[in-house]
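Example protein
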Amino acid sequence: MASVCSSPGCEMEAKLRCPTCVKLTLPDDGSYFCSQDCFKRSWKLHKLHHVLSLGKNSGKLLDDREKQKSAFANFPYTGKLRAEYVSPMSKVPDHIQKPDYSETGIPISEEKSKRARVIVQLDEDEIAGMRKVCRLAREVLDVAGHMVKPGITTDEIDQAVHRACLERDSYPSPLNYYNFPKSVCTSVNEVICHGIPDARPLEDGDILNIDITLYHGGFHGDLNETYVVGNVDEAGKKLIKSSYDALFAAIEMAKPGTLFREFGGRIEKVAKSNGHSVVRSYCGHGINQLFHTAPNIPHYRKNKAVGICKPGQTFTIEPMLGEGTGRDVTWPDNWTAVTEDGKRSAQFEHTLLITESGCEILTARLETSPKFFWEEEPTA
């Protein structure tokens, strides 16, 4: 659902958003422009939009900011990152098919599935549904990935992801899942996973993981990648590449007969060879009509995961590696997981389908996907 230019008399499609509107966390309406020229011509009139919107919403904005500030009062942060203002939850039109938790925040079907612990093998029609949603999820991640640069906020990325989902007749799976307030997880520097998009502009030298899941046609598709923001030091790049290599070392094992507990040993071997730790608190998971279901895929060796790979199963592998400790701390927002020592973490994730002879990466990259830094830089 594209926005229309806010410049009077212009009805062109608009993708540029007023940076002041973003900073003030104002509603989307009236804040988009088709070009810099339209934005400049309308600036004197558009400034009134800031005044009027703040006057209308200032009480609620102040209330929300104070509540969030209070939640983090005296919290002992582990690293340099700080919680910033989180804007209100985006809405999804009625015509978009929604998962069962979209209103209540409680995935009832998942709760029932946990008790049954059944590892599902999909039929051909269901596999087609998974291929479709995973392709759409890849497209949306690439939209977000192309936006990564110093100065942009993760809230802006969230808004773009939300629009991209709706444009594909899809529901952003994280939205209101156990009350998660946004449409995407954005994890900066020491954030391991489940970072909530906020008003903090990305800084040169940051690393950023973007985790996308879409719900379309009754199925979920899940993937994530870690990006460099501007000029990242060599240690940060090494961590990112190590996480990527660990994922693909595990994917090489994905075929009928592989035990779910075997993936972790391969992942940890790659991580340790690069001097990195593996986060143990979070694991890969089954995914199909349910966002998270059996099996669990731990990313460390000597785990006790139950089950064996069989054709028709779909699940994620998503190792989280750390520069220092693999132990984690959760922020007072009950979602943001950070490293205990404040050092950086990186992650990559794919949704896989086990086939008769191996596996298919359902969320595979496209020719138009943003290039990784190691694809752009010459090797020595």
The first helix runs from residue 19 to 23. The CA atoms of residues 242 and 273 lie 9 Å apart. The chain has a mean pLDDT of 92. DSSP finds nine helices and 19 strands in the chain.
